[in-house]
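Record pair follows.
FIRST:
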Amino acid sequence: MITLCVVQHTDGEYLGLLEDHFEGRAIRFVYARPHVPGGSLPGTAQGHDGLVLLGAGPQGMAGGDPLPSLAAELRLTSAFLDAGLPVIGIGLGSIMLAVAAGGGCEVAPLRFMVGEAKRTDPDALAGHLPPTYPYALYMRDRALLPAAARVLAVDEAGAPMLFQVRGNCLGFTAHPGIKSGMIEDLVMEFDAAPENVAEGLAQLAARQRLIAQALSGIMVGLVKVTGLMDAAAARVRS
């Protein structure tokens, strides 16, 4: 079975709606939780077929409270990239992917944004990314993409919402499988929170069904671009 290492940074944020899609494709995921007492990260990519780096609520890389496990996670991300294995970054995880792939990070305030992303490339996610799709973003800081990055979607202001690097790696600025409960848990877990939480949650609730619908196509493209299903088929043949 294909196995993903999923790095979780807070109790509130997890794979969310992505879990059912991975399970339906017999893709196993194992959470690494460096933020809990006794939690740790794998030292290498060995034993895994891909890496997922989740968001971290108000914690960032350049501003606010820095993520305690940041240095170790950047080393782990580089190990997966060096091995040619897919990395999926979400929120702060997308910034870590950008940095490990040769880009950078800039300070941006903690923000809760709900809106609609627009596809910039008709072939994005092997043609499976919807022309437009709803998003809900809760994070701090902003990725500076490496020169070789391919921007697949942008927000209303033209900022990257989805990018591709190294061919099989994807960075989602907003969590594509987000649930309202994640935001509620993040607000309770940390002292720092944006001022528009109540308004944002109402907007997210109104778009939750549309987010779930868009995720179906996104996941088809994600598994194709990352090659996870090809790896699973090759393993069965062998």
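SECOND:
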Amino acid sequence: MKGIEYLLLGIGALAGAFLRYKIAESPILLGVLPINILIINVVGSFILGIFVAISMNFNLDPKYSILIAIGFCGSFTTMSSFALQSVSLIDSKHFVLFGLNLIGNVGLSILALVLGRAIMLAIMRP
């Protein structure tokens, strides 16, 4: 990696981590299920889907992937927090909520990425 790539990675990671912190700092509950992490992962996947479509369409320099995909989305989305939240639900014997959390984070994140990419590709088509 070159100096500019480290700088782009750091800028993206700092922005993603800050935004994740701001969203996660106050619990958002859906019944008893905290959905902050779900929101973060779905929004981050949607952003990544948009970026992938833009990157492919405009053949962006890989440095932009370092900034957006690896730096921002990598530090904004959070698999470790999702895993911890899931284990906590299992420990407290909330098995249905665990299942909903699992399906929500994985399924909705994949759907959000696909939708983000599809929307951007549709917008950019001549």
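COMMENT: The beta strands are 29-30, 33-34.
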